[in-house]
Write a structure and sequence with these properties.
The protein has 12 helices and 4 strands; from the N terminus they run αβββααβααααααααα. The protein is mainly alpha-helical. The chain has a 4-stranded antiparallel beta sheet with strand order 3-2-1-4. Helix 5 packs across helix 6, helix 8 packs antiparallel against helix 10 and helix 8 crosses helix 11. The longest helix has about 35 residues.
């Protein structure tokens, strides 16, 4: 939700209606059941969760009012942070489009090195080690109509900074998903005649393959944006916006996957039963996100017709 030019975007979570202060220190977060943005109100030893959409309606908070705009900003912010309280600073993604987290220095160095090598390859396709970077930057400056090689350096470094976030997420999300798929695959070797576990494992592997293709395609799309380095530098602002949109999607995805990936990271000491319980939890995470809609509807209609153990509901992202 963007502010009008006459109304600067607020940097902090600020609300005026008495309902937001009457109950003490309230917390805004997403419900663990369905991911809906809620206001959590302390009620002694318990909590009450009030959906933000219901709050707007119940207390006649107009969308265009200062509180209405802030509730929209809070809902957007919860895509990037676990929770907000009144007075907290809103995440950078909502305020400026920058990231509220830092990429690793290794990924910064990697992204910068890759772009510089692409420029060098333009003037020296054979990769002559004697070719100086300055020559490549000077050549790129002429091709781009810029005054000096320093202008190209600035563009390259800016683009590399955006790509550093993508490289960090590649390691924290895609590579870990691929590692999990490799870890799950051998579990079926010991299954002989156990139809339930065989079917469960097959479903998890199928859904993980769907997830891998979906997430992997986002990285491929970003990689394609910098395949032609001169075009990327010539259109740097548009490429930055595109990369940031993919970065935010991947970051939300990584936040959703992190609990599952962490459980598998810590599964080394689990007995056989514990591992299969984790396989079941993984299925519960994957199904609502990566199962085709028609298959998910058939699956749910079948479950309603028989008694089953309740499954944990998960947030959809």
């Amino acid at each position: 939700m963007m502010a009008t030019p006459a109304e600067p975007l607020p940097d902090f979570c600020l609300l005026e209606h008495p309902v937001f202060s009457t109950f003490g220190a309230v917390l805004f977060r997403r419900a663990t059941t369905d991911g809906v943005p809620v206001m959590v109100v302390p009620m002694g030893a318990k909590e009450a969760m009030l959906p933000l959409r219901g709050l707007r309606r119940e207390f006649a908070i107009a969308d265009a009012s200062s509180d209405g705009r802030m509730l929209g900003l809070i809902a957007d912010s919860l895509e990037f942070v676990a929770g907000l309280q009144v007075g907290d600073r809103l995440p950078a993604e909502v305020l400026t489009g920058a990231a509220s987290w830092e990429p690793s220095q290794q990924c910064r160095d990697l992204a910068k090195a890759r772009l510089r090598l692409q420029l060098v390859a333009l003037v020296d396709p054979d990769g002559n080690p004697g070719r100086q970077e300055q020559t490549a930057f000077a050549s790129a400056a002429r091709a781009l109509g810029l005054e000096a090689a320093a202008d190209v350096v600035r563009l390259v470094d800016g683009l590399a900074e955006e790509l550093a976030y993508i490289e960090t997420l590649r390691g924290k999300l895609l590579h870990r998903m691929q590692g999990l798929a490799e870890r799950v695959a051998p579990l079926g070797r010991a299954l002989r005649g156990d139809r339930n576990r065989t079917d469960m494992l097959a479903a998890v592997q199928r859904l993980m393959a769907n997830a891998g293709k979906l997430v992997g395609s986002r990285f491929d799309e970003v990689d394609a944006q910098t395949g032609d380095i001169l075009s990327a530098l010539r259109d740097a602002a548009a490429r930055q916006a595109f990369i940031r949109s993919k970065r935010d999607w991947l970051y939300r995805c990584q936040r959703a996957w992190e609990p599952v990936l962490r459980q598998w990271d810590n599964a080394g000491g689990m007995d056989d039963e514990g591992v299969w319980q984790l396989v079941g939890k993984t299925y519960q995470f994957l199904a609502p996100r990566y199962m085709p809609v028609s298959e998910w509807e058939v699956f749910n209609s079948g479950r309603r017709g028989r008694a089953v153990q309740p499954t944990a509901k998960v947030m959809k992202w």
